[in-house]
Design a protein that fits this description.
The structure is a homodimer. By secondary structure, chain A is an alpha+beta fold. Chain A folds into two domains: about 100 residues, Pseudouridine synthase I, catalytic domain, N-terminal subdomain (Alpha-Beta Plaits), CATH 3.30.70.580; about 140 residues, Pseudouridine synthase I, catalytic domain, C-terminal subdomain (Alpha-Beta Plaits, 2-Layer Sandwich). Chain A is built from five helices and ten strands. In chain A, strands 1, 2, 3, 4, 5, 6, 7, 8, 9 and 10 form a ten-stranded mixed beta sheet that branches. In chain A, a hairpin with an 8-residue loop joins β2 and β3. In chain A, α3 packs across α4. The mean pLDDT of chain A is about 95. At the A-B interface, β4 of A face β4 of B.
Chain lengths: ~250, ~250
């Protein structure tokens, strides 16, 4: 048995999220089917990030064990020939036997994109959240700054999450303009269920003037989901990359 | 009767091109249906550019006559509420009675995008043509330069075109890199059927070394479609904008 790892990119629009489900088309399910068609094995896949329906990824990471002799680097072109165009294996390699895409991850970077144009370009509409109101970028940036640190992020976690500890470390949280879009860039060691979409909804509220940027610390301290803003829609969210230690890559 | 003009943007992936057809979903057909649902009229639409299936637009222009009292600027939000997200009215206004989107156009700009990455990102795959080989950008730029001018462009026109004169004026033709993509930017007073896709196929041949850049003049002079390169696939092509004289806007 060997452990194969993949960096995988996808446009999440057409999928019911990452995680395989019996009666829905998901990214993981589509990937497993491609692996089955390639080498005849029903593998167990472990994804680093179980992205929600409609969320995109440039660099999710997945691993699985196989008896197939296909060399590590060859999985990329081989799987791409069985995958639809909106899912691509960007890199493939033979990993250490104990490599775990989620537990071994040092940090993850997500970006949430907001379009404030009066009319959203059809070329961008799959990858942005449209907000009609004018947003105060400075207020959003100030709120974002207070999000950085090691905190119990319970206020930014949707009900139903199974995780025991809600403590995470966020190393970067920045708000900046990129062309006609406002980008919220977040990096950390891991994120709770819907954490970045709730952060985006809260920062949008701050940009609209509905919440003061100074309230970020109070919201964090409350540990109360009701104090944060709404969960922003999925299509604005992109998993950009996951970093591992030298030895694992 | 008043003449309403629209600037319209669309992701052409899901459509059988611009022009309305009896048994296919087209951009023009979808727009006419939105107009019918908005004001109950079956209008005749005149589009500036009849883009092919799979070709995109940021700024096509269309005009129609209507008895509806809806003010010019209000057509934009009203129609957008009846249109799918992959078609957007970016601007609407009341035009002169004799405004004709195609005949009055001074110039059009198209861009053709080529991705040379080993694996094409799923976020970009709808808008680029993938070329696996390394392309010589300088050779392509040299070939492009010779495409500029007033010529009979018969060698760059697909059979079956109905136009009588094949003489057009191309004012700009440039090849440049934009991030991981190679862009062919072309401007002119009008273009023949498939002209830019055949130009792209020919410049790709020059980038691959299959054709010498100096042969552009010979190909143009031959008036022979067989001398030019293949017709590049539609998804790389984008109608960027159409310019009119001051008075028409």
């Amino acid at each position: 048995m060997r452990r194969i790892a993949l960096t995988i990119a996808y446009d999440g629009t057409a999928y019911s999220g990452w995680q395989a489900q019996a009666n829905a088309v998901t990214v993981e399910g589509t990937l497993r089917e491609a692996i089955r068609r390639l080498c005849g094995e029903e593998v167990v896949t472990i994804g680093a990030s179980r992205t929600d329906a409609g969320v995109h990824a440039l660099g999710n990471v997945v691993a699985f064990d196989t008896e197939s002799p296909i060399p590590g680097g060859n999985w990329r072109p081989a799987l791409n020939s069985f995958l639809p165009q909106d899912i691509r294996v960007m890199r493939s390699w033979e990993a250490e036997d104990d490599f775990h895409p989620r537990f071994n991850a040092h940090s993850k970077r997500y970006e949430y994109r907001i379009a404030t144009d009066e009319v959203i370009s059809p070329i961008r509409c799959r990858y942005v959240c449209g907000v009609r109101e004018t947003l105060d970028l400075e207020a959003m940036a100030e709120g974002a700054k207070a999000f950085v640190g090691t905190h119990d992020y319970s206020a930014f976690c949707s009900a139903g999450a199974q995780t025991e500890s809600k403590v995470r470390t966020v190393t970067r949280c920045e708000v900046y303009r990129e062309g006609p879009e406002i980008v919220i860039g977040v990096e950390g060691d891991g994120f709770l269920y819907n954490m970045i979409r709730i952060l985006a909804g809260t920062l949008i509220d701050m940009g609209r003037g509905a919440k003061a940027p100074e309230s970020m610390s109070t919201i964090l301290g409350s540990l109360d989901r009701a104090k944060a803003g709404p969960t922003a829609p999925p299509q604005g969210l992109m998993l950009v990359r996951i970093r591992y230690g030298e030895d694992e890559r």
